[in-house]
Amino acid sequence: MHVWKIMLLPRRPSTSWFFSSPSLQFPPKTLKPFLTTVFSSAARRERKIAPFRRSHSSVSEPKEKSNSSLMDGTEKVAFNKKRAQGSDGSSKTRNLQLKTRKLNPVNTICYVQILGTGMDTQDTSPSVFLFFDKQRFIFNAGEGLQRFCTEHKIKLSKIDHMFLTRVCSETAGGLPGLLLTLAGIGEEGQSVNIWGPSDIKYLIDAMTTFIPNAAMVHAHRFGSTLNCGETGDEDFKAGPFVLVDDEVVKVSAVLLRPEIFDGEQDKTEDSKISNAIDENSGSLPIPFVSSSQNSLKRMKAMLKPGDISVIYACELPEIKGKFDPAKAQALGLKAGPKYRELQLGNSVKSDRQNIMVHPSDVLGPSVPGPIVLLVDCPTLAHLQEMLSLQSLNDYYVDNGNSGQSVKSVNCVIHLGPASVTMTGEYQKWMERFGGPQHIMAGHEVKNMEIPILRSSARIAARLNYLCPQLFPSPGFWSIQPSNGTLGKPVESNKDFSSTSFKNTPAENLLKFHLRPFAQLGLDKSGIPSALTSSDIVTELYAEIPEIGNISRQVSQFWKASQNADDMTTCKEENVTMVEEPWMSEAICIDSSNEGTFDASGVQSEQSGSESELPSCLENISREDMEIVLLGTGSSQPSKYRNVSSVYINLFSKGSLLLDCGEGTLAQLKRRFGVGGADDAIRGLRCIWISHIHADHHTGLARVLSVRSQLLKDVPHEPLIVVGPRQLKRFLDAYSRLEDIDMQFLDCRDTTEASWEALAARFETGEAEKQEFDTTLFARGNKMEKYWKRTPGQVGSLVDFPALKRLKKILLDAGLEGLTSFPVVHCPQAYGIVLKAKDRINGVAKNIPGWKLVYSGDTRPCQALIDASLGATILIHEATFEDAMLEEAVAKNHSTTKEAIGVGDAANVYRIILTHFSQRYPKIPVVDETHMPKTCIAFDMMSVNIADLPVLPKVLPYLKLLFKNEIIPDESDEGSLAAEQQFNSLIEG
């Protein structure tokens, strides 16, 4: 067994000054009013939540105008220079110690519980929670585990040990975020033991490339490696390996690898491999050897470390029988300390007789300790190996060894997919355990109609009822606002009642009690009740009786024949005014139930100030482009908002992902359904990552892995991933763990200068890529120096082959260009411009293509304004409300007003605000008077380019929907303090 510790240093905000550069100046005429507003002092709004507290003030507001202006009168924007340079760290380290517990094996409460991550989306392996009074264990940590535990108030801070049944994105995708969360708890943070087979080292190596502040990782590996270059087949030992053995539980592991054929079967495998090579034009993920005698080694080489699976056995100690004082006295013992020794299992000498008294002489029959097995058999190849494992013989009632005691198993949790667990061979293997309770927790066993994330599902259903055009029905529901009916859920693939043993499909929060012994068995009392769209709509009507009229009014925005003036005029004879103090506009409710209409005043001004329809939207098709906001929160996943990800749907021409935070795959499945998400993954043309912070890319490995699996049997090319160069180190390290089938391209190779260099050299050859420093704040250089180089100066530094391939992919997708540009947040942080190709209408008129800009995370900066000039859509982060400018500067984020100011300065047609702090759990604090062309993003919001003209009109109605939910609930308040610690770790 190997154990190692990785010490990683935390970084905290430190004192910094306002910093400016010519590259960050705003145009004085366009931005002066905006900047004057930004730097004006504003009292913090009174809100019924705990105020945000920071341990160090990074920036203070300038006291004099001279501090924020140049001699020529140009206004400047403040930002945290040290954070942008990545040099604001502290030398102080956190020594995260593991928890120590005083355990009581007699009176403890114990149960196993299904934490149903992935059950409604089938995107990850469910987690299993082993609970003791003083100790906690979790098996598997797939993406979404934190959101699920937050939803159901399961405190991950209490976890002592985490075990992985496989080392891959399916079982460990949520681990990086979880480690960051634990490291950010309290002043010193917390740590946890992580257990996995030998190849867990690849996962740890990959994580340390982008979690430089995760404090200390206590990782333990067991078993030998699968790589035949390091150890021969004879060195592979299945176990069991005892991992934990204390007073309350013994946890052991048995390794399970896919069956590898040899002998005559090798020739058949040779033929299969040769055919596969022919079909894929000689392309296989690993080198192969044609000789059949090397077939065994070749097949071993084809296996990835993530192919090794683990079976865990959790054995509780037996409960000693009841002590009989009468028997003790008959054997000559006096009452006293010797009674205690016998109850502890120790023999003692009789006080009155010359004999030894043994515990069995005075104790009643012992009660065997309960045993739980967790079985992860992911493929039929693993099944063949599992059937022959000798390590499990002690648990079989038909092991054939009459003299050998059998360990009676009480519960078996099956994590394998239904395609394996429902086979006849697997079912016969299950019968060998006798009569334990079997819990089927694998994919496809039951696609539950009860969403895992009930809070976000409830908001999604409310939004869908209000405005189905922007918030389509989630993929796991068939919500029909007209009658509130639901689609039928996917039923189980197996009729469990037909089996000869006790079977039950896993459900969220299903328990199996182990101690006390009297409660041994299943407990379904904690399973969430069914949640249907009709229930949510009923609640909505009780809360907002006029919601039906409001929904109908919103739908009027999508009627092309309706005149815009009709939407902003109230018919006084038929309306009743309903004013809410929390809204900046009144909403008119039609007493005749014919609809609702906006009041005059602010809304009328807003309508009148709208820009004319851009020429790119002339006769635009709904099949041209759609923006799906998969994650709209910052830092870490929360109950209501996932972390950053934007899906650009180009329909028949494919799709792109802009950022890919943890849970992106699950969000795709919630939006498009399980099958629809698979189609979306197959259709990806490119994934673009803005910067290396964990909330923007930790879902990437899972998406790449799933895409590789979906396309493994069809000819395809690796997916291009564009990102900062630190991301390549992570992907290179992770590719040793499982197939991710991607080609990396540095963001700096997709800047405007790089594209110009490609155009200049297209006919003259390709230059070899070289390493160089192009960070926005490169030492010894002015920030704008590299970005102003000519194409000739940049040409020899660009990865031309990958760039040329990306150009072709973009053209096939109907895009003219994808351009990255530097922004002010952290080293190598970028924004992106997507430009569609021009099109020709029916009368041969040339119509320019739309332009989309995504800011990533940033302070307002000139590079972003320049890139956004004349854009059709700007998706801009708005992490903080306007009253929190100081915090925004310290973290190099933007406030709502700053984001809108950037869009106004660039004359953008529509602005979508996203990346909201956790302090705004449901809807952020906004002021519609400054938002005539702006809308707030919500998870699963789908903005079709044809709907852009009506997009800002919906905002007042969204606020109406959340009028009773602007104040967070108690469970949300605790996340505010955690956000500060989490940010200091991922952004340090």
From TrEMBL:
Its EC number is 3.1.26.11. It catalyses: Endonucleolytic cleavage of RNA, removing extra 3' nucleotides from tRNA precursor, generating 3' termini of tRNAs. A 3'-hydroxy group is left at the tRNA terminus and a 5'-phosphoryl group is left at the trailer molecule. One of its GO terms (cellular component) is mitochondrion. Its cofactor is Zn(2+). The keyword Metal-binding applies. It comes from the Eukaryota. It is an enzyme of class 3 (hydrolase). GO terms for molecular function: 3'-tRNA processing endoribonuclease activity; metal ion binding. Residues 118-174 form the tRNase Z endonuclease domain. The keyword Cell membrane does not apply. Residues 50-95 are annotated as: Disordered. InterPro entries: RibonucZ/Hydroxyglut_hydro, RNase_Z/BN, RNZ2-like, tRNase_Z_dom. GO terms for biological process: mitochondrial tRNA 3'-end processing. Keywords: Endonuclease, Hydrolase, Metal-binding, Nuclease, tRNA processing, Zinc. Gene3D superfamilies: Ribonuclease Z/Hydroxyacylglutathione hydrolase-like (3.60.15.10). Homodimer. Belongs to the RNase Z family. HAMAP family: RNase_Z_BN. This is ribonuclease Z. It comes from Aristolochia fimbriata. The lineage of its organism: Eukaryota, Viridiplantae, Streptophyta, Embryophyta, Tracheophyta.
